[in-house]
Write a structure and sequence with these properties.
The protein is an alpha+beta fold. The protein folds into three domains: about 110 residues, no CATH class; about 130 residues, Jelly Rolls; about 70 residues, Phage tail protein beta-alpha-beta fold. Helix content is about 35%, strand content about 30%. It has nine helices and 18 strands. Strands 1, 2, 3, 4, 5, 6, 7, 8, 9, 10, 11, 12 and 13 form a 13-stranded mixed β-sheet that branches. A three-stranded mixed β-sheet has the order 15-18-17. Strand 2 and strand 3 form a beta hairpin. The longest helix is centred in the first third of the chain and has 24 residues. It starts with 7 loop residues before the first helix and ends with a strand.
Length: about 325
């Protein structure tokens, strides 16, 4: 049968799909993640099958689970006929019959053991941007993330099932695809930003004393501790990294649009302006030092260039060099 014709009951009879659900085979996991991204209209049926497969929630190893689901597959296949398809209630009854002995044995064993603390089993995919280049990430729901340099995005395996939760360290721009009844929430520390059909930017590098939420279009709701605020396009919210101190203001939309498109422009920039721009653009703490008797100004336009390329131009024109010390990039006169 063509995979695009699959219903939930067909997915659970597919050995490869079961291994994908159990995360027991990397090739199967990669295949189904890619396939579901290409055919998003089948995600609802796949999610239904995945939820049903794990409804029993047995405390056994992945290998034991796979063996038992093999028995379940055989039980359903034997019971099925060409005349009619199974209802979900009937499938559940078959599952219970097939797995009841194992469930009872598992209950007897675990009931005799001391209670153990609950452990979160959610797995994540990590996306990291390099030291000087941003990275674009297309999520399963069609949302686009522009991840700035020195940033990490954590995407849970359950993303785009009932909800769309992400964890950010650093800075990223989110262009959010609309999906009714699937909230899109980005967390950084104790700060949460919920998109309401929008494009927004969140910045919260470890060295920043404040976090910033910038709304490019649409609407977002920002929550931190007990404080909640909504932003309109053109508004930026600044707050403390550890505690809520909400301050709204307007931002330079031209600069944000330039960042979004990757176009970096210096116009008669002073050393302080060069440092501030590089810090803003590449997510690295930059300090520029010049000789007192030799003031500098810098002009240049860079389209989607790395930090190294921009630094090379700044240093060459002004007789400077760059050195990294203690997480700070120093641009300074060439040492003799």
């Amino acid at each position: 049968m063509d995979l695009q014709q699959y219903k939930a009951e067909d997915f659970i009879l597919n050995d490869s799909f079961v291994r994908y659900c159990l995360r027991s085979n990397d090739a199967d996991v990669q295949f189904w993640e890619d396939w579901l991204e290409r055919y998003p209209h089948k995600q609802e049926e796949a999610i239904k099958a995945r939820e049903w497969l794990f409804r029993l929630g047995l405390r056994i190893t992945p290998e034991e689970k796979e063996a038992e689901f093999g028995k379940l597959k055989a039980a359903i296949s034997v019971a099925d006929t060409p005349v009619k398809k199974f209802s979900w209630r009937k499938i559940v009854r078959i599952a219970a019959a097939a797995l009841l002995p194992l469930a009872a044995a598992t209950w007897w064993f675990t009931a005799r053991q001391p209670a153990a603390p609950a452990v979160a089993t959610e797995s994540y995919t990590l996306f990291k941007a390099g030291d000087s280049l941003r990275r674009q990430v297309m999520l399963a729901d069609g949302s686009l993330v522009i991840l700035n340099a020195h940033s990490t995005l954590k995407v849970p395996a359950s993303y785009n099932q009932q909800k769309r939760n992400l964890v950010l360290e650093g800075e990223a721009l989110f262009e959010v695809a609309k999906a009714d009844n699937k909230p899109f929430v980005v967390s950084s520390g104790n700060l949460q930003v919920q998109a309401l059909g929008t494009a927004f930017k969140l910045r919260a590098y470890y060295y920043d004393k404040q976090a910033a939420v910038t709304l490019v279009e649409g609407r977002v709701r920002v929550a931190q501790e007990t404080a909640v605020a909504e932003l309109q396009p053109g508004e930026q919210l600044i707050t403390g990294k550890a505690h809520a101190r909400f301050v709204k203001n307007k931002f330079d939309e031209e600069r944000e649009n330039a960042w979004r498109s990757g176009r970096l422009v210096f116009h008669n920039a002073s050393p302080d302006e060069i440092a501030a721009t590089l810090t803003y653009w590449y997510g690295v703490n930059v300090k520029v030092i010049t000789r007192k008797n030799k003031p500098i100004r810098f002009n240049g336009v860079f389209n989607n260039k790395s930090l190294h390329e921009v630094l090379a131009a700044v240093c060459f024109v002004n007789g400077l060099e760059s050195v990294t010390k203690n997480d700070t990039l120093w641009v300074q006169p060439i040492s003799k």
